[in-house]
Specification:
Shape: globular
CATH architecture of the largest domain: Orthogonal Bundle
Distance between the termini: 50 Å
Oligomer: single chain
Number of helices: 20
Order of helices and strands: HHHEEHHHHHHHHHEHHHHEHEEEHHH
Largest sheet: 5 strands, mixed
Number of domains: 2
CATH superfamily of the largest domain: 2-methylcitrate dehydratase PrpD
CATH class of the largest domain: Mainly Alpha
CATH topology of the largest domain: 2-methylcitrate dehydratase PrpD
Helix content: 40-55%
Length: 457
C-alpha cells in the first residue's frame, strides 16, 4: 500500500478556498450552473418522477438530523434519498458534464450531494461550497481513472463517483481522516460496478448508475460516522494506482470537464457537430442529402441504431441524433421525449445514415471523441467533414455565455425565467467571499410550480 490516502484525506478535509486557483473555482461555479439546468429540465421526465416517488416510498428519514428536501420537489426524505432522486433524474437527461479520462460523469452526483448535505449542516460560505464541489470532482475523477486502468470491464460512473460524494460528506460533516478512510472503503465496495456497454446495447433508465453512486456515497459517510468499517479503497490505496493521484492539488481536473450542447450521449456529439458544420458551411438542407456516412470510434458505433421508442434509447442513438440535427439544426428535450420519438421525418431520414467504426478514431478514445462524416447530396456532390472533435471540452470549448445560454434554455421552461435567472446569478455570486450557500439554496428545493404557475410535474 502507498501513502496516497493520507494525501487524499488532507486534500478533502483541509483544503481551503485560497489554496485553489480562481480559474478552478470559476469552473466549479459554471459546472454547478450547467448541472442544475439539467436537473431542472429532467424533473418532468418519467425517470425523475419515479426516482422521487421511490425516494419518498423507501428512503425516508427516521432521524430529522439526516433529513433533506428533494431538489425542485420540496418533499423531505433522507439525505441519501434526496441525493439519489436528484442524481437519478439528472442522469436520465443526458446533458450533464463529463470528463474524458474517467469515461464518465461527476457533476451528476456532486451537485445533488451538495444540495442534500447542505440540508443537514450549518450554512457555509459560497467559496466553501465551490471548494467542496471541486473536491468531489477531483476525487471522483481520479477514482474513475484508477478503476478503468485496473479492470477489464467498462463500468458506469456510479462505480466510482460515489467516492467523490464520500469525500464531500466527510468535509461538510467534519469527519476524521479515519472516518473518511472507512467511508471510502464502504463506498468503493458497494458502488454499482455495472457494465456500461450493457446499457449501451439495451438503453434503459439505468443510464450511468449515478443515482446509486450518489446514494452509496452519502450512505457510506453516515455508516462510517456511526462506526461502520470498510475495506481500504483499492482505487486510492493500491500501489499500481498511485500514479493517478500524484498530481492531486496541482492539476485541476475541475477545469477540464466537458459541457454537452445536446442532451444525448457524448459519443454521438462529434458526428452531430460534423453534420452541423457541413450544413452551416455549405448551406444545404436535409432534403438535399442522399446519403450520410458516419465514421467513428467503436463505442459510438455500438450506440442504438434504430428508431427509438423511448427517451433512453433516443439519448443512446447516434443515427437518431444525427438525423434530428440534420432536419432541425437543434437537439432539445422536445426531440427525445413525447412526439419527438415518433417523428416520421426522422424515421425516414434514418434510412440515409450508415455508421462504421474507424480504427484511428477508436485508438484515440477515451482521451478524445473524434468522428468524421461524408455527405452525398442528391446532385452527386460529396462533402467530407474531416476529423471533428465533440464540442464542449478543452479541445473545442463552449464559451461561458454559451453555457449560461444552455442553462436558461433548459431551466426556464420548467421553473420560469425569473427563478432561472435567480439561480444563474446566485451560482456566480458564490465566488464572492461574503456569500453563503443559502443564497443559492433558497432557490433549489421548492417545486417548479411554486415559481412557474403554468407548469406542474
Amino acid at each position: 500500500m502507498t501513502n496516497t490516502f493520507d494525501k487524499v484525506a488532507a486534500f478533502s478535509l483541509d483544503l481551503a478556498p485560497r489554496d485553489i486557483p480562481q480559474s478552478t473555482l470559476e469552473s466549479a461555479a459554471l459546472m454547478l450552473l450547467d448541472t442544475l439546468g439539467i436537473t431542472i429540465a429532467s424533473g418532468p421526465m418519467d425517470a425523475g418522477r419515479i426516482g422521487r416517488e421511490t425516494a419518498t416510498a423507501l428512503y425516508g428519514a427516521g432521524d430529522p438530523s439526516t433529513a433533506a428536501r428533494m431538489m425542485f420537489d420540496g418533499r423531505q426524505v433522507s439525505m441519501a434519498g434526496a441525493a439519489y432522486s436528484a442524481a437519478t433524474q439528472t442522469d436520465n437527461l443526458d446533458g450533464h458534464d463529463g470528463y474524458n479520462p474517467s469515461k464518465g460523469h461527476i457533476g451528476v452526483v456532486v451537485i445533488p450531494a451538495l444540495a442534500a448535505l447542505a440540508e443537514t449542516v450549518p450554512d457555509f460560505s459560497g467559496p466553501e461550497a465551490l471548494t467542496t464541489i471541486t473536491i468531489g470532482y477531483e476525487v471522483a475523477g481520479r477514482a474513475g481513472i484508477s478503476l478503468h486502468k485496473t479492470v477489464s470491464d467498462y463500468h458506469t460512473s456510479g462505480a466510482w463517483n460515489a467516492l467523490g460524494v464520500a469525500a464531500m460528506a466527510a468535509r461538510l460533516r467534519e469527519h476524521t481522516p479515519e472516518q473518511l478512510r472507512q467511508s471510502m472503503g464502504i463506498a468503493e465496495y458497494h458502488g454499482p460496478r455495472s457494465q456500461m456497454m450493457r446499457e449501451i446495447a439495451n438503453p434503459t433508465m439505468l443510464h450511468d448508475g449515478s443515482g446509486w453512486g450518489a446514494m452509496v456515497g452519502i450512505s457510506s459517510a453516515i455508516l462510517a460516522e456511526k462506526g461502520f468499517t470498510g475495506a481500504p479503497a483499492i482505487t486510492i490505496e493500491e500501489e499500481r494506482v498511485a500514479q493517478h493521484w500524484a498530481d492531486l492539488g496541482h492539476f485541476w481536473q475541475m477545469e477540464h470537464q466537458y459541457v454537452k450542447p445536446y442532451p444525448v450521449c457524448r459519443w454521438a456529439h462529434a458526428a452531430i457537430d460534423a453534420v452541423r458544420a457541413l450544413m452551416l458551411d455549405h448551406s444545404f438542407t436535409a432534403d438535399d442529402i442522399a446519403k450520410l456516412q458516419v465514421n467513428t470510434f467503436n463505442e459510438a458505433a455500438c450506440l442504438f441504431q434504430g428508431m427509438p421508442n423511448d427517451t433512453s434509447s433516443a439519448q443512446y442513438s447516434l443515427p437518431f441524433a444525427v438525423a434530428t440535427m440534420a432536419l432541425y439544426r437543434h437537439i432539445g428535450v422536445e426531440y427525445i421525449t413525447g412526439a419527438g420519438l415518433s417523428d416520421p421525418a426522422v424515421a425516414t431520414f434514418l434510412d440515409k445514415i450508415n455508421v462504421s467504426e474507424v480504427q484511428v478514431h477508436s485508438e484515440r478514445f477515451p482521451q478524445y471523441r473524434y468522428s468524421d462524416v461524408e455527405i452525398t447530396l442528391n446532385n452527386g456532390q460529396v462533402l467530407a467533414s474531416g476529423d471533428v472533435h465533440a464540442r464542449g471540452g478543452p479541445e473545442s470549448p463552449m464559451s461561458r455565455d454559451e453555457v449560461v445560454g444552455k442553462f436558461m434554455k433548459f431551466a426556464a421552461p420548467t421553473i420560469g425565467e425569473t427563478r432561472a435567472e435567480a439561480i444563474r446569478d446566485a451560482c456566480f455570486a458564490l465566488l464572492q467571499p461574503d456569500s453563503q450557500f443559502s443564497d443559492l439554496g433558497q432557490h433549489l428545493y421548492d417545486p417548479p410550480h411554486a415559481s412557474n404557475p403554468e407548469h406542474t410535474l
